[in-house]
Amino acid sequence: MPSSLSVESTPITADILIVDDTPANLRLLSDMLQTQGYGVRKAINGTMALKAVRSLPPDLILLDINLPDMDGYQVCEALKQEPAFKPIPVIFLSALSEVEDKVKAFGSGGADYITKPFVLEEVLARVEHHWELAQLHRQLTAKNQDLETALLQLKKTQAQMIQQEKMAGLSQLVAGLAHEINNPVGFIAGNLSPALDYTQILLEVIARYEGELPEPSPQLQDFLAEVELDFIRTDLPQLMQSMRTGTERLKSLLLALRIFAHLDESEVKQVNIQESLDNTLRLLEHRLTTDPAMGTPVRIAITKEYHPIPRLTCYGRKLNQVLLHLLNNAIDALRQRPDPEAGLTIRLKTYAAEDYCWVEISDNGIGIAPEVRSHLFDPFYTTKPIGQGQGLGLATSYQIIVEDHHGILDFTSEPGVGTTFKIGIPTDLLRDT
Known about the structure:
This protein is α/β, with parallel strands linked by helices.
């Protein structure tokens, strides 16, 4: 007979499952554990034990080895094969005291082993010990989950800070370029018109001299033939006009840069999303032709399907970041096609539907492999070669659209066919023009 209890009762609440085919043992263990404040359930065979665990997992199991239908080793092994039940401590109870029996018990997943006839104080001490270990394990698991969440948040914050720093640097660069380039461009543009007028006057003067002096000296005739005056007379106006066109292009790029960075404007403003798309494309004009190293350069075609939408009240500069990232990714995907002669196209579409303002950016590039799609919006994840990407573009785009604008950023893709990214901004962020 086991000795009388001498351990003080403690206010511990735990659900314990006792599995034993001997009613006396069940009653004795149950009374002792309930006296100590534990909740107790009972099972008389392995099948009942497995059903009891699956219906409501206990905090700890006292398991006899010799059971009528399946032995305790089999019950323990079955439980440990299921991830949800693997952490539950199993304490074996058995009259078998050989080393081989204990090794087999631990090998099947047992946490402890008590031989019969057992001393109740020992049972209680081991139960309390393993219950405390189980609690510590749960706390450790919870803290690990908290750490994983904190790490993910840290990565997101780090990515956001890096991207903000990059955009701050870009804004400063744009401001400097706009200031330094704007003055000489303005000077050139302002002087091109009178320069063209002066050119016309000089050509007219030459023409009148030719009329007044139809027979120039042989030396002058030789000089005129050497400098090809007739060619200069034809080409000089065209050259001046080309300079004017180039200057207008420079002014257009400066305007696009200012609009892209939203210099000297509030962070939240009304934006014409179609103009933003066009301005971003203007900045990427130099990338819309494939690399000559691929062979004959191929021009990327742009098709637009702009349906009328109101101006969008949003973080204009941040939204331009998203458009820039997605268009750059589309160009990269097209440049990697092995058959560019088949035709490279980016399709832009804007429309309002289902309480959202939608922007679609589609390409017929190489597509996205299925194994990387679940990681596409993770910070610092990239499929590009080292030095060609930091894995921040899509992660930052997701944060800007989903978190900052409470919108939707999604994509569909088929390898070898192409990819479509969809941006959805709730219509309650829209204002009438």
